[in-house]
Design a protein that fits this description.
- This protein is α/β, with parallel strands linked by helices and 294 residues long.
- It has three domains: 80 residues, Winged helix-like DNA-binding domain superfamily/Winged helix DNA-binding domain (Arc Repressor Mutant, subunit A); 98 residues, D-Maltodextrin-Binding Protein, domain 2, CATH 3.40.190.10; 94 residues, 3-Layer(aba) Sandwich (D-Maltodextrin-Binding Protein, domain 2).
- The chain is built from nine helices and eleven strands.
- Strands 3, 4, 5, 6, 7, 8, 9, 10 and 11 form a nine-stranded mixed β-sheet that branches. The chain has a two-stranded antiparallel ribbon with strand order 1-2.
- Helix 7 links the parallel strand 7 and strand 8.
- The relative contact order is 0.14.
- The N terminus is likely disordered.
């Protein structure tokens, strides 16, 4: 194809909708979950990816038993796709007057911040670059206090009743230890736990007492970084949410002889009477995005 000056031009163009589908599939690692998030059928997504692969002349996704992963060419395209979508969305929001602005205060436990905030906040601020989000980390109990005092607008919090209708996803509590220091065989069992009023602290103590397993508390803190540091030192084991376990420490298997721990639900909580449209929009984004984060 040639332009009016006789120069060669690109035959194809990268469709915005197809690029958006491609990035969501890459982020989630699953056609079925991406289809649910995008409100499309799996066959429609497959056709879009087939069209994109035909257009680029490369296989972009590996489909295997462990889900969907990017090929080397897919890795190359994903960076361009994110840039194109960001610029497209910013231009559309700015020119259509639909972009949001303002600020909000958002609370989140440390472990959920590590696992979920990059995607939750990153995607939202890409769509609404004029929004400022101030983040406060703390335990669920501390965040509820801040909500009651109207010090924050909304927060991700843990709940013990994972069957509640407002639960957005669930996370398992797990025992973790330093692989090179198998101290989980010692008695009394050395523990590093969060503060006394937290779900993970109470679950650990209750389960050990039910098993009549002797223990001693060597470290207690609301700091996730502090708990992980103690575990890395090999001086204690700890209880973390499964999503927050770093690669260099070990989720302890059943063979360690430790009691089962509960699964927590994650939901949103709001300050009293808060009806700010910006807060509602961010909450809606979390409700849509959080269940699909891997």
């Amino acid at each position: 194809m040639r332009d009016i000056n006789g120069d060669d031009t690109l035959v194809g163009t990268l469709d915005i909708d197809i690029l958006r589908s491609f990035t969501v599939i890459a982020d989630i690692g699953s056609f079925s979950r991406a289809a649910s998030r995008l409100a499309k059928t799996q066959s429609a997504l497959s056709m879009q990816i087939k069209r994109l692969e035909e257009l680029t002349g490369h296989t972009l996704l590996h489909r295997g038993g462990r889900g969907v992963t990017l090929t080397s060419q897919g890795e190359k395209l994903i960076g361009y796709a994110r840039d194109i979508l960001r610029i497209h969305d910013q231009a559309f929001m700015d020119l259509s007057g639909r972009g949001l602005s303002g600020s909000l205060k958002f609370g989140c436990p440390d472990d959920y911040a590590v696992c979920f905030l990059p995607q939750l906040v990153g995607e939202f601020t890409q769509l609404h670059p004029s929004v400022f989000i101030e983040i406060f980390c703390g335990t669920t109990q501390q965040l509820h206090q801040k909500l009651r005092r109207n010090e924050i607008d909304l927060a991700l919090v843990s709940v013990e009743d994972k069957a509640r209708q407002d639960v957005l996803r669930t996370e398992h509590l797990v025992w973790v230890g330093q692989p090179r220091s198998p101290i989980w065989d010692t008695s009394p069992l050395p523990l590093a736990l969060s503060e006394k009023d937290t779900f993970d602290h109470k679950a650990a103590i209750k389960s050990l007492e039910c098993l009549k397993r002797p223990y001693r508390l060597v470290y207690a803190s609301g700091s996730l970084a502090g708990l992980i540091a103690v575990v890395r030192s090999g001086h204690a084991i700890a209880v973390l949410t499964k999503c927050a376990v770093p690669e260099d420490i070990q989720e302890l298997p059943k063979e360690a002889g430790l009691p089962d721990l509960p699964t927590l639900g994650i939901t949103l909580a709001f300050s009293e009477g808060n009806k700010d449209p910006l807060v509602e929009k961010f909450a809606s984004h979390i409700e849509k995005t959080l269940p699909n984060i891997i």
